[in-house]
Predict the 3D structure of the following.
Amino acid sequence: MDRTGMPKVGVDTATLQIQFGEKSVDQRKARQLAVFALRNFCVAAHARNLAHSLCLVHPRSLAGMELHVVINGRKDLAGQLYNQLRSAIESGRLAAGTQLPPSRLLAEQLGISRKTISDTYAQLTYENFLTGVIGKGTYVNARVSKVERKQNPSELAGYEVIESWRNLPVFLRHPTLEGSLRYDFIGGATSKGQFPQDDWRRCTSHALRQIAASKGFYSLPEGLPALRNAIARHIAFSRGVNCQDEDVVVCNGAQQALDLISRVLTRPGSIVAMEDPGYPPARLLFGTHGATVIGVPVDAEGIQVDRIPLGTRLIYVTPSHQFPLGMPMSQERRVALLARAHELGAIIIEDDYDSEFRYEGRPTDSLQSMDERGIVAYVGTFSKTLLPELRLGYAILPPAILDAVVRAKQLTDLHTSTLPQWALAKFIAEGCLLKHIRRCHTIYAGRRERILARMAGDLSPWLEAVPTMAGFHMVVLCKVPMDIPLVIELAKKVEVGLYAIDSFFYQQAPQAGFFLGFGAIETLDIDIALNRLRDILQQVA
Ligand SMILES: Cc1ncc(COP(=O)(O)O)c(C=O)c1O
């Protein structure tokens, strides 16, 4: 309804839409005008023998219900109405308890006789789809029987592909807060209580103002210039990465960066080599592109470069903090890896997912900063420094693949939502990110120390920590044989969440050990949890 009280009427030769406002000054007049417009529309549509449709939204009498009925031509009007109402009820589109328009109103709207409407309502009432309440109206009954709309998937031509997706194991789905354990060593979760809500809220308000001032078009696939600039400065400062703003592509988390890089480099059957054990979401993702994924074993220095097979065109590694084991890749191995990739004509993905949190030893150069040939795609994420649910990450791309990745980004999702991009750009530019990283660093360092002390102390008969310098998880390997699923089960009973590392192994024989994330568990809870673990190990190992 506009300010004059006229209903908004949009007409083309086949469709008419009328919308009544929430606060009409004269609803009656508005309705008369609407009906008048409808009649004209129906006459025009009939004259052209076109289908006409009606979509009515009336907040008062229809309580938000949107009834959509399409009448074609003038034949079998009752049959058309009956079939549409029945299938809308059976499919659930008209929910139980919905009030249908009075027959007079619907007759006016559709330009068919009121008797046709009443007869159809009566038939549907007789068949128990509707109930008439005297003095009130006609209502949809609870569904009599659900129409089976599901096609048997095995009859579909794409069945095999559907099944391959359906059967993919699910990683990274975190339990809900209610479902999680009191003392949880879950990986990938950040210290939520530390999230700088006030700073983020302020930056989000800034983002809303930017969007209010924008033209309302699509944005840039590679990301907002302000955020690309903030990211380039941030990683040059914190990770010594060599880049210009133009090399940065903003993505929905690291996972999208992996997806895009793999899309532009691989075809079904292409060889992708990755660390084994490694990051399952990356392995599964490359597999869904049809790549042949080769698991290359790692040792204390990182990926065994000489085991990367001929024909490999993409190599995925986590040099700062090998996922999941945790050791950094040695300098010699980095040099060898760059040389091997060059020899193969391969691109290396350097997934630097959590190295902002580094605790000891000399900082290592990123592979990207050692790369003189433009063969390293550096991938980073804000899932670890801020929150995984923000879905913000980035790729720093070598010139050879930059444009292709931007095209792929544009084609797959046009661009990352600008609201969080604006907010993050401000958040980084104002120094809030560095401040937050410093605060979390102190907390994670304390938790890490605690776990390491216990592993070197009373838990040492059973477990030993893999030396690690970064991130906020560590792997502890079993020194004696033990029934790991049993230990996990018993720990669960005493509210301790433990996770085995076997699922991170792909083609290599799994090692026995546990993955201890210390983002989610409170520092003071670590000893309580590890005491409980020690009691269990005393019983079973
Ligand atoms: C090895 C590795 N890479 C990347 C990520 C982050 O992915 P995203 O940015 O998509 O949340 C994680 C998160 O757990 C990870 O473990």
About this structure: The longest helix spans residues 432-456. The domain at 195-429 is CATH 3.40.640.10 (Aspartate Aminotransferase; domain 2). DSSP finds 16 helices and 21 strands in the chain. Confidence is low (pLDDT under 50) at residues 1-26, 33-64.
